[in-house]
């Protein structure tokens, strides 16, 4: 769920270049012309600034791993280089350089995915070892890809065709292709997994229809119509954590929320004597005699709830989170604001704005200063233990590699990260949320 101006972007009016929510929607990261910032979004009234960094200017990719201290950064100054930091200790875990500009990075507890225009690199997040390179993937100039956040099924989704909306599903744990989903007639614009990794939502460049599929089978479950009058550019899709709702933002002033619920074949209760029930049956009967494109349009569900923003023509990032036990829609705008809306899970309709936060000018309070880097980090290895080196030392070593499972095609250079004397350990118990298996 990332929004960026691209590898050549100049940033918004406040110097904002990109924004992304973490995997459980408890944290927001923004990249700016002066570095990056991390915020906690677990409170409605207060936006807590977790961390500021000015070490890398012009950050156009910044991704945080859940609530841990691991953060991945890519800068416009070095768009082919990925830096992985432990921001609380002030150390760099590793860095990798690639043969072309990095377009997207995705994380879960098992894997780190780096997406280039025509290749994808799969790393083991425990030690950052390169496990697999997917070469000669269809041209993907905007870096469209998604990685399931569930710890037991690291499914990777990416475009299987550059001219139509095919989606390839790859098992990043077992390193094998699972299935191909013919999702849309037009090229893909956005894809995202549910928290359990059992559902995938997609939108095409037309932006009028959003579809939801089962994973790994690839069967179509739902079809939602975002609009009919105009094509739009979908900038983000996100399921709620309970997978009951799906939100979509675009370059228009409207954010749509769809409810994932099954309907009877008639679209309403068979025993209902209401006028709407009668009309629903009539539409269903009539659709059997209409062209397939028209009947499909009649059977598509509309938005359950909507939000009307005060700006248009901007790419916004949205997510559905439960904050203080109430469903909320969060929208991070490229203008440098975070909007918080209440969502009525029963009636839907127009969502109510309850808070607007500025993403610039937010500073840490004195009693919440960032912790000092530890001089002697723990020697014991934890679940996400990995290696580190001082962040001011650039990596210059490189080795030739063209192994199918661990390198690039023959003749390309694969850099080799350097190792420090002692490891950096992420504190699993305190930094990772509880792991729960969901069957949505």
List the helices and strands and how they pair.
Elements: E1 2-4, E2 16-21, E3 27-32, E4 35-40, E5 48-53, E6 59-64, E7 70-75, E8 78-86, E9 91-97, E10 104-107, E11 111-115, E12 119-124, E13 130-135, E14 146-147, E15 155-159, E16 165-171, E17 176-184, E18 188-193, E19 199-204, E20 209-214, E21 220-225, E22 234-239, E23 245-250, E24 254-259, H1 275-287, H2 292-299, E25 305-308, E26 317-323, E27 326-333, E28 337-342, E29 349-350, E30 352-358, E31 386-387, E32 398-400, E33 413-415, E34 423-424, H3 428-431
Parallel strand pairs: 25-29
Antiparallel strand pairs: 1-2, 2-3, 3-4, 4-5, 6-7, 7-8, 8-9, 10-11, 11-12, 12-13, 14-15, 15-16, 16-17, 18-19, 19-20, 20-21, 22-23, 23-24, 24-25, 26-27, 27-28, 28-30, 31-34, 32-33
Helix pairs in contact: 1-2
How would you describe this protein?
It is a single chain. The protein has about 450 residues and is mostly beta strands. Helix content is about 5%, strand content about 40%. The chain contains 3 helices and 34 strands. The protein has helices spanning about 275-285, 290-300, 430; strands spanning about 1-5, 15-20, 25-30, 35-40, 50-55, 60-65, 70-75, 80-85, 90-95, 105, 110-115, 120-125, 130-135, 145, 155-160, 165-170, 175-185, 190-195, 200-205, 210-215, 220-225, 235-240, 245-250, 255-260, 305-310, 315-325, 325-335, 335-340, 350, 350-360, 385, 400, 415, 425. The strands form 9 sheets. Strands 1-2-3-4-5 form a 5-stranded antiparallel beta sheet, with no helix packed on it. Strands 22-23-24-25-29 form a 5-stranded mixed beta sheet, with no helix packed on it. Helix 1 (about 275-285) packs antiparallel against helix 2 (about 290-300). The protein is globular. The protein starts with a strand and ends in a 9-residue tail after the last helix.
